[in-house]
Amino acid sequence: MDQLRQVGEALGGVQALMAFADDLRINPRQCSLLADACALAFAAVAAEVRAHLRFSERLAKWKPLEAPLRELHRAVRDAEGYVRHCLEPRDSWWARAAAATHGADCVEQHMHSLLWSVALVLEAVELVSEVTGSDPDELARRRLLFAKDYDRDMLEPRLFRQRLGARYLATRELAARMDAAWKEDRWLLLQYLEERRSPGSPKPLTRNEHRLADLLTAPRGKVHPASVLLQGDFHVRRRLVGNLKEVQWMGESFAVKHFVGADADAVGAEAALLTSVAHPNVAHCRYCFHDEDKREFFLVMDQLMTKDLASHVKEVNNAKRRVPFPLAVVVDVMLQIARGMEYLHSRKIYHGDLNPSNVLVRTRHADAHLHVKVAGFGQSAATVAAANPRPSPRASAKAANATVAASNPCIWYAPEVFEQEAAKCTEKADVYSFGMVCFELLTGKIPFEDNHLQGEHMSKNIRTGERPLFPFQAPKYLTSLTKRCWHGDPAQRPAFASICRVLRYVKRFVVMNPAPAEQPDATPPPPVPPVDYLDVEASLQRRFPAWQSGNAAPRVSDVPFQMFAYRVMEKERNRAAILHIGGGGRDKASDSSSEGNSLCGDESGSATLSDADALSVSSRGTTITTTTTRSLPDRAGSRKASPSDRASSRKASPRKVDSSRVATRLAGKPFVHAAPRRHLSLCVDDAMGERMHGGAGRPEKSKSMEKSKSMGVVRPPQIIRRTQRIKSDGHLNSDVIPSPRRRGSGGGHASDSEI
Predict the structure, then answer these.
(1) Which of 251, 271, 426, 582 is 20 to 30 A from 125, alpha carbon to alpha carbon?
(2) All residues at 6 or more sequence positions from 600 whose CB lies less than 8 Å from its CB, including other chains
(3) pTM over 0.85
């Protein structure tokens, strides 16, 4: 409830600022779009809460809403800051206009966060509504009502927009406004400056303001005389990462690339490339200035970024932390880098040198969240040399400590780059480098930093398939995605468009299932996704061929449908998994994951569902763990299960999720259905006996046991204990069914320690 109130307060701040919308001269259409979207988001969430939740149960059952509402509050709070930035110039209106008129932050950053968080909150509301009230008929009716929204026929953009567009902020009107807002603001700025230039204007422009008006109305990429920049309040404050400097211009702080004695053609080519792009996760140039007498170039960048990712990881990493960032921050940074690279690749711009030193960051909130920009693309050797003609001793020491990539750059390059230099600037080579950056984000270590091989030996090992090793505690659904990105075969690496869709849904899973606080020897195993999201992506690509190309420019208005499509496929695979287990398909491996596409399977990329394994099934975004018990000798293929075994197995596999299971799920603990102990004990004993004798027949010990049962002697039941060491489904067989070596020469039932 407190989080929903905070969202309303942030929305009130936006609406209070928009009361002065007539005074907006910087991005008025984008500010109006953002304010209306925030109001629609709050109205949609409030309507769902009123329709499906009970206010009296807010303290007992609304806990799954807290984390999604925090994300929505962060998005609305950032929107309020954007509107305030455009409405209230701190010192100079001209400086604020120069800093904000060419950006695409409104749609690409703020609208993207808002649409994603709305889909997240709506899913959380559905989750809580499934346990709202106590009437079983009402709960069943509500589940059926929600299930109709996730029918496979809804995987059609037009039908989704018609039925659910207003709820998910995916209407045609809002999409059209997002496409046209920046162009309309550009036209309004030109009209305003023309009025100021007219002789009859109540506020005529000064000579310096005429120059600034020409600067604002000029097409992007035009080279202006340096006198426009250097006259007035302009001075360098400090040196930043690489060839960037922080300068003070008209009371505003800017980042400037300074080139001295550089080739005019080389700098002109880089300036043309940097001014042709505009994305909040890509470092781009707003204005270019040239001093012909001193042969100096000044490229005013879009935003001031304080440090690079390599330096920031080194600062926050310490011996007390196993990972440098919280998992939610890691996934968010990965998504921002992937979105920046997706935008560059959509414009046929390939980086060729993606590494943490070319990823700029700055802190955004007090909760360790970062704003990330991809930089360093389009640089030539001439511009790099001219950017640092004589670096200062402090800058040299800082560069030597922070950029290990400069001393051993081969750790970021794809294997095909060592064989052919032309393969460096390709889409798949950038994906490989992205995988190495993800490794440093997840572990806090530079790839191969513990390896004794360097130089040519390192490149040879990379070509033969050597990759960094992840620690045990790294989430497998993220390490598997990283391994797909650095796959030795370029054709097996996913495109950045696919990576963005997967990471959006992975981020949703991390927020909906927060990791428990770190407590030694008492932390339960972290939750894992119930399905393979890369496999879901492959299925959706087959349904929507346009997703496969990745050449079209990404549209923020498509995010709600993409999130919904992933949700539909996830629920469909969960139902198929439950039916597979309940239907008794023992000899059929689940085809829900394809070879090489596994996010949470084994190293080879294949993940199968087996009847005796514990299956994590997601329902409305959380994890339910169900255990079904079958005759283990039948699983080995040596004999058929007896009728009593099958009856007991059906009894131990309830298909209906009862209220106690849901309550346990909301408490954050896995629910384990207890199977009949006597039946499970006999199954384990028979399975171990048959494995010891190669499946040729039961051992004498088993026959004597049946004889003793017929005489009325009943063995005491064995208790199968689940410990915190069982981390995944793949480990369950080895823990429940010991190998013959562990059994040794002793017969009969296994002891608790052996099991």
Answers:
(1) 582
(2) 476, 477, 480, 528, 529, 532, 607, 728
(3) no
Architecture of domain 218-301 in this structure = 2-Layer Sandwich (3.30)
Q: What are the pLDDT digits (tens) for 725-743?
A: 333 343 433 443 344 444 4
Per-residue HEC secondary structure of 303-342 comes to CCCCEEHHHHHHHHCCCCCCCCCCHHHHHHHHHHHHHHHH
The string of DSSP letters for 694-754 reads TTSS--HHHHHHHHHHHTT--PPPP-----TT--SGGGHHHHHS--HHHHTT--SSPPTTT
CB 66 within 8 A of CB 125: no
Number of H helices, E strands in the chain: 33, 11
Residue 656 CA from chain centroid, whole number:
32
Alpha carbon distance 25, 186 (integer Å): 11
What distance, in Å, lies between the first and last C-alpha atoms of the chain? 45
Q: What is the pLDDT of residue 524?
A: 63
3-state DSSP assignment of residue 386: helix
Fold of 317-375+407-496: Transferase(Phosphotransferase); domain 1 (1.10.510)
Alpha-carbon distance of 399 to 397, in angstroms, equals 5
CB atoms within 10 A of CB 219: 6
Contact 529, 599 (CB under 8 A): yes
Average pLDDT over residues 658-663: 46
pLDDT digits (tens, 9 = 90+) for 290-309: 988 888 899 999 888 888 99
Q: Which tens digit of pLDDT belongs to each residue from 376-407?
A: 887 755 455 555 544 444 444 444 444 444 45
The answer to whether residue 45 scores a pLDDT higher than 90 is yes
Q: What is the pLDDT of residue 451?
A: 67
> What pLDDT was estimated at residue 508?
95
